[in-house]
Amino acid sequence: MIAEVFAEAGVEGFVHAREIGVDGPEFCHGADDQVVLASVFKIPVAVAYAAEVAAGRLDETERTRVTSRYRIGGIGTAGCADDVEMSWRDLALFMMTMSDNAATDVVFHRVGQATVDAVLDRAGLERTRILGCCEDLFTSVGADLGTDDVEKALANPTWELVRKLSIVDPERTTSSTPREITTLLDAIWTDRVARPEACERVRAIMAQQIWPHRLSSGFPADVQVAAKTGTLPSVRNEAGVVTYPDGHSYAVAVFTRSQSLDLRDPAADAVIGRAGRLAVDQLRRTS
Predict the structure, then answer these.
(1) CA angle 150, 154, 158 (to 5 degrees)
(2) Cross-strand partners of 237
(3) For the chain, which has fewer Cβ within 10 Å, the N-terminal or C-terminal residue?
């Protein structure tokens, strides 16, 4: 059924779901295929940030400046015309709730690649690799296309252009597997990837995400969703944890590759919620 749902939406889909803290049934559909993370990579960045705060190496109330260097993506501080001064905790909030690329890169540069990689190691993620931050991804686009104006080049993408991009090739960019991402989520929700206060901080931020059109769209209003989206040309993703009123929580990762390059594709967005719901319904029937 899930293959039919993806086909109807015009996408290729990859799914993994598991109940949090339970060594039980899993839902798998391309669960071990390598997939492009896009902004889902911000989840381990958030863990690295929270771990630094919990360890006392970063004062979350300290303020820093987001300058014009980071204005890529157009959302949040990335879309501001002027420099912005914010606290680290507010930058982390913007990074996760609205997928602010500028906030992400400022946080990433503060905690460092090695700290982010350490999160992956602690979670036991052997097939997950993060090749820098958003700035690095956009730099790769410029190199692939031979242009400095990346946002203009991607404003109306064609397949001829997209096929040149390393950012949509899981073998050449930041990538993982659906199973490894739910492994990370399970480690966050069970306080195993960082100190409990750090994991709680990440859970609280992820629960405030503002986008309702993907994973959340598949679940009733009484189901809590804490998640992170990811978007690139032809790529739409979301990974998160859904918690039912009965207290059971499920880590769900849905990654898609679209046959369309339309910037707005409601069917491709909605199928993430439909697939996530099918996966969780199956787990609830068999557990």
Answers:
(1) 135
(2) 230, 255
(3) N
Tokens found for residue 287: 């557990």
The answer to whether the CB of 187 falls within 8 A of the CB of 113 is no
| Backbone angle region of 208, left / alpha / beta, with phi > 0 → left and psi within -120 to 50 → alpha | alpha
Positive or negative: CA dihedral 178, 182, 188, 193: negative
Write out the residue range of the structural domain in which residue 136 sits. Answer: 2-286
What is Dmax (Cα atoms) for the chain? 53
161: domain CATH number is 3.40.710.10
Pairwise pLDDT comparison (256 vs 152), residue with the higher score: 256
Distance in angstroms (rounded) separating the CA atoms of residues 161 and 278: 34
Instruction: Determine the pLDDT at residue 199.
Output: 98
The rounded distance, in Å, linking the Cα atoms of 195 and 125 is 18
* Residue 203 DSSP symbol: H
Residue 73 predicted with pLDDT over 80: no
Domain count across the chain: 1
Q: Which of these ranges, 72-81, 197-206, 233-242, 261-270, has the smallest mean pLDDT? A: 72-81
Per-residue pLDDT, averaged over 185-210, amounts to 98
> What's the CA gap between 207 and 55, in Å, rounded?
23
* Residue 12 parent element (H or E): strand 11-19
Would you state the structure tokens that stand for residue 72, as one six-digit string?
């890529």
